[in-house]
Structures are given as C-alpha cells and as structure tokens.
Amino acid sequence: MEQNNTELSRDRVFDILSSPRRRYVLYFLRTEPNPIQLTDLAEHVAAWENDTTVEELSTQQRKRVYVSLYQTHLPKLAESGLVEYDEDSGEVSIAQKASEIDPYLGDQEDEPPWYLFYLGLAAVSLVLVAASLAGLGIAEGITAVVVVGAFVVLTVVHTVYRRRQRPPPAEFSE
Questions:
Q1: Cα separation, 111 vs 171, whole angstroms
Q2: Would you give the distance in Å from CA 15 to the centre of its chain?
Q3: Which residues is 85 bridged to in the sheet?
Q4: Whole-model pTM?
Q5: Number of domains forming the structure of the chain
Q6: pLDDT tens across 89-145, in order?
Q7: 104, 126, 155: which is the final residue of a domain?
C-alpha cells in the first residue's frame, strides 16, 4: 500500500489515535524489530483487548480483530504513513514517520517525578512545623512563611517547566 508522505495534521493524528485498536497496533509494532504477519498482529491485539493470552483466544475473537485490522485500521495507518503494510505478503511493520506522533502519545519517561518533590517538601515542612510546635527555637511565623513559600516556589518551577516542555499550540499564538 502506498504511503502518504504529507505531514500529519493534529486533527488527523487525533482521528488516528481515537481508536484504541490502532493505538495498540502502533504500540505493539514499536516493540517488534522485524515485520510481523497480520495474523500474528491480530492475535496479539485480540488477546490484549480480551484480557487473555493468544492461546486462549476463540476463533471468533481472532477473526473479529483480523477483519477490522485488514479492512479498516491497517489501511488507515498505512495511508497516513505510520505503518508499512504489504497486503500481498501480509507483513506489517512500524514506519519511520510514526515517530511524528510521539508527542501525542503522552510518553512521559523524561518527566521529572514531581510527586516525589512535593512529597519531600511536605515531609520537610512537617518536620519544621513539628519543631516549631515543640518549641525547638523555630518561630511559628517563620516556619509558616518558609513552608508556604517553598510550596509556592516548587509550584512555580513545576509550572514553568511544563510550559517550556509543551508550548501552546500554534493556533493560540499570535
């Protein structure tokens, strides 16, 4: 099947990713270094969708997924240039262009563990408040300012980080 070499619009990407079956196909093909047969791909997708193993799939579960991949999902993915699909051999593989949709898939591997920063700050704040209440020489007013100030600073840093990582869409910028 011939690939479309034009750039994917945001609406097109959202349309493609609106189907959990297509998202799973893209995910699965990223894990496969070599082309995979459509029948094998359909079995893995069917097993995932039915929360079972490939061996425990019924014939109908396999067929339902196979038909929808063959008739609808793989042609759409191939037309968009995200997969390479040879209808004659039945081989399917991820295409180079698939990396263009990575930002839409929400892969957050490089995202700092912000929850740990907030948890650490909460623990330090708890120690400061406890020390203040126990009369260990820390003034209550200063403790309150430090605790609130630290949370404000961390929240601002988090917000600035997120905005720099994900600038607003072009249509919102002038």
A1: 25
A2: 16
A3: 92
A4: 0.58
A5: 2
A6: 999 999 989 888 877 776 555 667 888 888 888 888 888 888 888 877 777 778 788
A7: 104
Q: Looking at per-residue confidence, does 129 or 55 come out higher?
A: 55
pLDDT interval class at 72 (50, 70, 90)? very high
Measured between alpha carbons, how far is 95 from 32 in angstroms, rounded to an integer?
A: 12
Residue 160 lies in a domain: yes
Residue 63 lies in a domain: yes
For 35, other C-beta atoms within 10 Å of its C-beta total 18
Instruction: Report the sign of the C-alpha dihedral through residues 97, 100, 101, 105, in that order.
Output: positive
Domain co-membership, 33 together with 99: yes
**Domain interval for residue 24:** 10-104
CA 92 to chain centre: 22
How far are the Cα atoms of 1, 97, 108, 166 from residue 101, in angstroms, in the given order?
Answer: 20, 8, 14, 14
Per DSSP, what are the bridge partners of residue 86? 91
In a domain, 133, yes or no: yes
Pair (118, 70) in one structural domain: no
User: Residues 83, 122: one domain?
Assistant: no
Q: Tokens standing for 49? A: 């969708």
